[in-house]
């Protein structure tokens, strides 16, 4: 999950929970019932809010953990690719140096032959 999608999901979930709780609180305050019943309803709503908030926090922590895990995997891939490129470059340089040394040796032999040495 990318960072923008996670933020949008989290913001949407928070908005939905807060809106639902505000609606429930307003309905409780205007409902025709006794004070004791209203207090019980408020306590239940507070418990639901607490549970919803805990669930939202756990989901956010899971999303962040997944994001960090994905980031670590990508970093490891990049390091591995860099090492592979480095090894390939080293191999190419060594092959080029070997070819250059052979060419120099060949020219040296031709030069010695031409000079009669």
Brief account:
The protein has helices at residues 3-30, 35-115. The chain is mainly α.
Question: How would you describe the overall organization of this protein?
Answer:
With 117 residues, the chain is mainly α. The chain has helices at residues 3-30, 35-115. The N and C termini lie far apart (73 Å). 93% of the residues lie in helices and 0% in strands. The mean pLDDT is 79.
Q: What is the C-alpha radius of gyration, as a whole number of Å?
A: 36 Å
The residue ranges in which pLDDT falls below 50 over 5 or more consecutive positions are: none
Helical/strand content category? mainly alpha
Query: How many domains make up the 3D coordinates?
Result: 1
Number of strands: 0
The general outline is rod-shaped
Q: What is the H/E order?
A: HH
Q: Roughly how much helix do the residues carry, as a percent range?
A: over 70%
What does the average pLDDT come to? 79
Strand content: under 5%
Count of runs of 4 or more consecutive helical residues: 2
Note the gap between the termini: 73 Å
How is the quaternary structure best described?
Answer: single chain
Largest sheet properties: none
């Amino acid at each position: 999950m990318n960072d923008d999608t996670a933020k949008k999901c989290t913001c949407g979930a928070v908005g939905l929970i807060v809106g639902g709780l505000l609606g429930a609180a307003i309905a409780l305050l205007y409902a025709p019932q006794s004070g004791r019943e209203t207090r019980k309803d408020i306590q239940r709503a507070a418990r639901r809010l607490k549970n919803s908030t805990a669930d939202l926090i756990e989901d956010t922590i899971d999303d962040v953990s997944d994001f960090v895990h994905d980031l670590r995997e990508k970093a490891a891939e990049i390091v591995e690719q860099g090492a592979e490129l480095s090894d390939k470059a080293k191999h190419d340089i060594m092959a080029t140096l070997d070819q250059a040394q052979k060419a120099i040796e060949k020219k040296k032999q031709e030069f010695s032959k031409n000079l009669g040495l």
